Amino acid sequence: xxxxxxxxxxxxxxxxxxxxxxxxxxxxxxxxxxxxxxxxxxxxxxxxxxxxxxxxxxxxxxxxxxxxxxxxxxxxxxxxxxxxxxxxxxxxxxxxxxxxxxxxxxxxxxxxxxxxxxxxxxxxxxxxxxxxxxxxxxxxx
Amino acid sequence: xxxxxxxxxxxxxxxxxxxxxxxxxxxxxxxxxxxxxxxxxxxxxxxxxxxxxxxxxxxxxxxxxxxxxxxxxxxxxxxxxxxxxxxxxxxxxxxxxxxxxxxxxxxxxxxxxxxxxxxxxxxxxxxxxx
Lengths: 141, 130
Prior knowledge:
In chain A, 43% of the residues lie in helices and 19% in strands. With 141 residues, chain A is α+β, with helices and mostly antiparallel strands. Mean pLDDT of chain B is 76; it is low at 47-71.
């Protein structure tokens, strides 16, 4: 036996957890959209989640076809900070500019929506597996 | 002469195939945001070596000598033109539609097994309905 319903559920669960991470990171980016002094100095840098597919163990002849997903890294966006002229700000430089994070709230909202839709799709695929298992269990009833 | 349970065996093979296909499709959905991911799908081989069109669970079930897990061929999805800027070629709608169809086929096969068993039970009970 190469795969069972638990394999399908494991695959869906990996997708759900990856999308939840995306959601957390997008929320963190939004929360820090005005953070001018982050740990390590300078304004907060936008974080981006990089996903990678992974082979599940014990899938037998289905290995290489049944793919889960994992967060391979959370990388910092190295694009330059947004400069705003505000000479009265304590973080302003000699020219009176304050470096704000390279975060576009609209972009983060779009990210959250796509993560949320992908999460819903994962839930659908998991309930499909549960539904199929129930159908199998009802044989002979 | 085939045994009374050969239909059930064949339907069980079809159910195994659809169960495994579900895991593959679930993997595609999970990887909807993975850069460079190409969606997979599996098909069953016909005895002659050609691809069997899985239009119905009966079609999947009635092929001779199907061994669960043995007759599958790995195939790339035909999502080649759909690849986005990050190389991901998963279409969520497509995968969910395939998953739903797959689930229905599985349910049909399960129902057919149930009815076949009910028939055998009826026959074994001398038609007394037990």
